[in-house]
What we know:
By secondary structure, this protein is mostly helical. It folds into three domains: 2-136, Rossmann fold, CATH 3.40.50.620; 139-169 and 211-296, Serine Threonine Protein Phosphatase 5, Tetratricopeptide repeat (Alpha Horseshoe), CATH 1.25.40; 318-477, DNA Cyclobutane Dipyrimidine Photolyase, subunit A, domain 3. Helix content is 47%, strand content 5%. The chain has 21 helices and five strands. It has helices at 16-19, 49-52, 57-75, 88-99, 112-127, 157-166, 210-222, 228-231, 244-249, 254-266, 271-296, 318-326, 332-344, 349-362, 367-377, 383-393, 409-416, 421-426, 435-439, 446-452, 463-477; strands at 2-6, 41-47, 82-85, 103-107, 131-135. A five-stranded parallel sheet has the order 3-2-1-4-5. α1 (16-19) links the parallel β1 and β2. Bound molecules: flavin-adenine dinucleotide (FAD). The site of flavin-adenine dinucleotide has 28 residues, from α9, α11, α14 and α16. Residues 1-140 form the Photolyase/cryptochrome alpha/beta domain.
Amino acid sequence: MRLHWHRTDLRPSDNLALVSPDDSEEPRSSGSRPPAGDDPILPVYVFDPKILDHAAPPRVAFVLDSLAALREWYRDRESDLLVVRGEAPAELARLADDYGVDTVSWAQAYSGLGRRRDDRVADHLNEMGVETRIVHDHLLHEPGSITTNAGEPYSVYSYFWKKWKDREKRGSVPGPGADRLADPPHDTPIPTLDDLGFDRPEAEIPPGGYMEARHRLNDFCSDDIYRYEDARDDPAANATSRLSPHLTHGTVGIRTVHDRVVRARETAPNDATREAVETFRGELAWREFYHHVLYFNPEVVTENYRDYENPIEWRDDPEALQAWKDGETGYPIVDAGMRQLRAEAYMHNRVRMIVASFLTKDLLIDWREGYDWFRRNLVDHNPANDNGGWQWAASTGTDAQPYFRIFNPMTQGERHDPDAEYIREYVPELRGVDADLIHDWHDLSPTQRRRTAPDYPAPIVEHSERREQALAMFERARGEDD
Ligand SMILES: Cc1cc2nc3c(=O)[nH]c(=O)nc-3n(C[C@H](O)[C@H](O)[C@H](O)COP(=O)(O)OP(=O)(O)OC[C@H]3O[C@@H](n4cnc5c(N)ncnc54)[C@H](O)[C@@H]3O)c2cc1C
């Protein structure tokens, strides 16, 4: 018997660790089923309190939904998903003992914390004589497979992309056949949020599950992908894939996504739409780039990637931080983004960049505060992308925004939401206000503001002053202040 430990691979198909834990990583054509071995597979999900310590209601809600869908898939095949609670090493060891398991398989984790935990689990199982098979599944190209000619991991995305885009990629693999699955003798219910000690999320969480992921992928690849180049920076257009929770929690396999995207490229009607598909592929490469960065630099979750001569003198300003979290900064595009996060546990990428820049370069608050807020509120939070995004905006990361290039939140709003459609959707106090006035909010007099939108706050800081202070803060950190 082989126990398969589902974690961020909440899907039955295109799951390399589930189907074929000991299969090689050689690229193969899409759709061919790798050899599966003879052991029947017993699937399990473990709610480990140590892992749940790092979780938050939006992500747990999405996981519960996705587990229900995955369990149905197994049940439709006369099998079942075991769902247990307790520390993973002890629970897996107990199940291995109860069911006469020879091998436990799972997909490789890439964060430092995840890898340390997996080592502990593997040691514990190996000591009992149970084999462990840990398979790269989450990325098209695993860490260490795309390096500089000197064999070093890339720290500049554009060079990484040049190698990534033309490298042969493995195609998706089908799920295990029903004849491969074991049937556990008793039901194990999926706990509720309450059982696990989580509140109901304030936000509306998108539906989880592998079928939902498949629909979203197909919808996007038949339509919006072709306007991705032009519309991806327009938050009101809502033209991005919204696949991020699915990629984070593994309700879709990355090979399935890539295969479908390549098909969209093959059927693109012209060069411009082909280019749009390629731009989207570039985002998948960013995801892989940041996972590689995290793998080789696990400390980036708490430390700056980039060394500065002196510590950056971030401000301790709880009031400003709270205004940022509440979407009450008086900068409409920032507030719209922060309120989208509260309402949907999601925020558009362009707006993530704007709010992250605002926190670090206008409020001069440490990126770790923002990362922590995103970690608790995003349904798609994963340490690699979240940390990559924050350190990019804070000018502390790999291939980051240079410290002297500081987003102006008014011009960002005007450029990317010219009709203030996105702003009005999330900031009801500004509904009915002209786009021009919204984009000029910063320059209106107190009387004009009172007349225009009495319930919306005045800007909590002056951007031009803060810009100068941010430059000085970074110059001191660089040792260039005299
Ligand atoms: C401060 C900040 C924090 C972020 N935190 C996260 C996070 O916790 N989880 C997360 O998945 N993404 C994060 N991102 C990246 C990006 O904002 C989201 O992936 C994207 O908005 C998700 O929406 P989508 O699926 O519609 O994206 P699409 O534009 O449709 O992109 C498709 C997929 O490509 C990947 N991707 C897209 N943009 C990026 C990027 N800049 N970096 C890495 N991967 C990318 C994601 O997996 C995404 O689902 C963050 C970005 C910033 C600036």
